[in-house]
Recover the amino acids of this structure.
DNA sequence: GGCAAGCCGTACCGTACGTTACGGTTCGGC
DNA sequence: GCCGAACCGTAACGTACGGTACGGCTTGCC
């Protein structure tokens, strides 16, 4: 059987939620992993020849499976996206400590993601792609990055509001505030080639700081200050 | 006389402060404007032939003036950067109203910049470039964007701290918080091809919100000493 | 006028790379 | 053992584009 062909021209934001990249042979996954590794190492100029050589497959096979270069790129990005899908957080019994921990966890995870070589490479190629007419890759990356994060975080925020720990009018706006406090200038600096290695400790500190700032802005407790707790 | 050649391989962050792109003929500026327009319209695949045709000049001239394609790109980016250089804000008599107005102004200006077609196109090409070995463009964009903003905003923040209106330990950290509150997810979404047109009104609202949030975090509230933190 | 410099337009060259074609090999089904 | 399908490796093709060369035109200077 031959795999899917990945040629649908999906409009932005039309990716349903769970996408279609699951009918993949083990061999195909291996090929995509090779392409991914090459993408991280070499940047956008991964050539079909290079992928074929790295994956020890023929170019004919690449074209049969993925249609053309864009199809291969899209499949690679979706394959990576399918690997990082995580279990949603359950709205269990919530107190300030667990809410803080959840937020810090989200912040820390997100910082780790956007500072990883893989994410940087993928975002770079998607940004380039978005500049060149066809918007597919940018939509995929956005959907599996920023929008997936929102979808996982918003239930936590709303649970916090229900239990009276948080106070905000619009969950989307609150999420974007949190996003800004966490990411700040990190992603754009990394994409533009700034060194800026985030150590584990720095990420932890930033996650805690962002969480405290968010709680200072949207925590419901009256009379609180950002520095205590 | 022939202009500069733009071939220096400057290391990241080594751009002094005011760069060298001022010895330009009117004709050269016109050519760079044409390249800039083409970059905005066509994305990264502006070819030397296209620039020559658009600018009504010969390719030979392009190569003589700018060395090679990268030189042209770099000159174009620096040319655009030199156009947006603004007068620094003076640390005049500062009260809460004028500080708030200044911050809102910075926020609004910055949102306008990063949502402009020109900025998006320039950042896209710089991000692509940063992925392909040579980091020059990314450094230039960073230096004239995010770092230039910091250099202009920090004196305002520090003046606010001196007059007791603001309370923060590190100006750099405070700036990055402000940056995050203003930009949030806007830039990455635009770079990845998300529509998201910011109207004048929306920008104004966002600037005011970000400013209020920043003041909530770092404003010296009555009943709180400027020295604790 | 004569001359040199700068520049335009265009033709040209070399190469990289996407895409296709094809011979050879492996493997499952009969 | 035989057949066809899938696939590997490699060669070949077409094109787009970076870079160069050159003839002709304008301009300023003597």
């Amino acid at each position: 059987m031959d795999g899917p062909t990945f040629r649908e021209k999906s409009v932005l934001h039309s990716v349903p939620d769970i996408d279609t990249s699951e009918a993949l042979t083990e061999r195909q996954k291996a090929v995509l992993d090779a392409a991914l590794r090459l993408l991280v190492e070499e940047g956008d100029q991964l050539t079909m020849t290079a992928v074929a050589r790295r994956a020890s497959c023929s170019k004919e096979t690449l074209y049969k499976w993925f249609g053309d270069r864009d199809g291969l790129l899209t499949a690679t990005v979706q394959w990576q996206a399918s690997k990082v899908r995580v279990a949603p957080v359950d709205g269990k019994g919530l107190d300030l400590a667990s809410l803080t921990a959840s937020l810090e966890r989200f912040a820390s995870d997100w910082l780790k993601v956007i500072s990883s070589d893989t994410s940087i490479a993928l975002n770079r190629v998607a940004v380039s792609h978005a500049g060149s007419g066809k918007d597919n890759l940018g939509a995929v990356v956005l959907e599996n990055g920023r929008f997936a994060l929102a979808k996982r975080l918003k239930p936590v925020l709303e649970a916090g509001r229900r239990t009276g720990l948080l106070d905000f009018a619009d969950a989307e706006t609150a999420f974007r505030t949190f996003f800004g406090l966490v990411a700040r200038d990190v992603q754009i600096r990394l994409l533009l080639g700034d060194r800026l290695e985030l150590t584990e400790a720095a990420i932890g500190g930033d996650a805690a700081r962002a969480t405290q700032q968010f709680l200072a802005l949207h925590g419901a407790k009256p009379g609180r200050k950002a520095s205590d707790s």
Residues 2, 27, 52, 56-61, 64 of chain B lie near DNA strand C (CB under 10 Å from a C1'). Chain B touches chain A through 45 residues (CB under 8 Å). Residues 1-21, 223-229 of chain B have pLDDT under 50 and may be disordered. Residues 96-114 of chain B form the longest helix (19 residues).
